[in-house]
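Notebook entry, structure prediction.
Reason for the run: the old model in the group folder had no record of what sequence produced it. Starting over properly, with the input documented here first.
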Amino acid sequence: MKIAVFADTHGNGRDLPDALRAHGDYDALIHLGDGAPTCP
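New structure, fully documented this time:
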């Protein structure tokens, strides 16, 4: 099983599909968080 793990995308969802394609096939995707566009 191949798992793609991402974190700290900081609201950059527009580029996430390109990053996933660059990593090839995967069976599961885990986002560890920190997807907010800004941090206090």
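Summary: DSSP finds one helix and two strands in the chain.
The old model has been moved to the deprecated folder.
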